[in-house]
Amino acid sequence: MQIRTLIVDDEPHAIEILLKYAANIPEIRIVATCSNAIEAFQMLQRHEVDLLLVDIKMPGLTGTDLVRSLKSPPMVIFTTAYHEFAVEGFDLNAVDYLVKPIPLNRFLRAIDKVMHQVKGKTGSYEERPETPAPPPVKHFLYLRIDRQTVKVDTEDIHWIESIKDYIKVVTRQKIYIAKQKISVVEKLLPMDQFIRIHRSFIVPESKVEGYNPNYLVIAGSRIPVGRNYKQACMEKFNVRPAP
Fold this sequence. Notes:
243 residues, alpha/beta, 5-stranded parallel β-sheet, WalR-like, 5-stranded antiparallel β-sheet
């Protein structure tokens, strides 16, 4: 059984983190993400959803207002940066209440509660009929450049390079330079699709064209493999050590 899940949050980075966490749980199927409660309300009128991961404090309609507006709300996990909304959230029979920044172990505990509720209703995860697999969820990296936020499709990225306090994001269309630490970007990427190969480089596995113990080839360029990342890199790409 898969739990059809809708994520609602006005912060793109918060959505990216939840997508990354959910990617580790086969039972969780993300049907869509919404940046506000109105968009989510419309989505819920058109699609069946088992679980709502919803931020509380959003412009316009709040997450709690959204849940109150639903005649038959799905299971709800509230996500917010504010502890004071906890009582209100549980008054709405929320399964759990997560305070940002949300650690992975706390997210997993909340999902475990959801699965126990589902199991209690069905007797088994396997008793509910499967639905057709949804299209793959797209991931985006949001970069702050020249006082605006730039949205980059992670499928377009060739590699990400750290240059002191900045990162260079090389895509097939252009190169972006943003003041960001590569360690922060690493947490926002779907790392089941990317790999850190050097303290200064992260690459998408699907773009690697050639392998060597000391470098990878992407779009004709050699990307160095750092000493501390060689073992993991060789195992990933089945590369034999140099004689």
